[in-house]
Amino acid sequence: MKYVKCISLFIVYPLLVLGIGFYVGVKSSWFFYQREEAGEDAEIPRAFVEKSAENGQASGQKAGLVPEETESGAEGDGAEGPAETAEDAEEVMVSAETLCVDTKYVLEETDVLHHTVVETTWRLPDKYVGMNREQFLQAMEVYEAFPPLSELERGFVGLEVLSFSRERVVVRMDYKFVQPSSSFYLAAYDNEVIVYLEDRKTVYIETDISLDSLPAHLQQNIIDMMWIRDEEELYSFLENYSS
């Protein structure tokens, strides 16, 4: 019994010592390992760490991982600016309609004495092609202020632009259409002889007779507005002096 007890103590004590030594060795190894890690981190310069962080962020931005708030915002604003300008310019171009060769030119000829209207559609005159609304209105104002003599002969008194678009422009021409009269007056206009009705305002005929080609006494009479008794006398004069 004594012998067995000695053997047990002989086995247990070494095992206990071995276990304590193993535990102490593990704890010591863990302690020194932590110290080494702490030492390595402490030895890395702070500036190097911050530089590495900046490089990492830049790399992430290049790879599309980190949003480039400042640059993207600036680039985005710059890209949207020209795009909006182009759209505004396009809207202005669309809103500023201009006449083209396909625009319908509608004339409403109104007899202000008898209150009748005759509407005709013509090809737009070349001089109006490319005009916008303002330019066309200005051209009509000039036409109204200085109408062709042929229009005065018809009794033109005024006009008005009723509508304007790229597809169709409508102009109303007002006339006091010339009615034959019992007597006439000869007058000079731009060195040519013209025939007025008895009201001395309404042009009846525009002749091609040059004032300089007539005898001196006739020239002065026509300058002073020469009276012609009737239509027969008028046509006799025209036949005698027309070239």
Report on the architecture of this protein:
The chain is an alpha+beta fold and 243 residues long. The model is unreliable at 40-49 and 58-83 (pLDDT under 50). It is built from seven helices and eight strands. The termini are far apart.
Report a brief summary of the structure.
Helices cover 51% and strands 23% of the residues. It is of the alpha+beta class.
**General shape:** rod-shaped
- Total number of helices: 7
Report strand order across the widest sheet: 2-1-4-3
Q: What Rg, in angstroms, do the CA atoms define?
A: 54 Å
Estimate percent helicity: 40-55%
Percent strand equals: 15-25%
Average pLDDT number: 75
How is the main sheet built?
4 strands, mixed
Low-confidence segments:
40-49, 58-83
Number of strands: 8
Characteristic key phrases:
8 strands; alpha+beta; 243 residues; rod-shaped; 51% helix; four-stranded mixed sheet; single chain; 7 helices
Note the topology.
Layout: H1 2-43, H2 46-62, H3 69-95, E1 104-111, E2 116-123, H4 133-145, H5 149-154, E3 156-164, E4 168-175, E5 184-189, E6 192-197, E7 203-210, H6 216-223, E8 226-228, H7 231-241
Parallel strand pairs: 1-4
Antiparallel strand pairs: 1-2, 3-4, 5-6, 5-8, 6-7
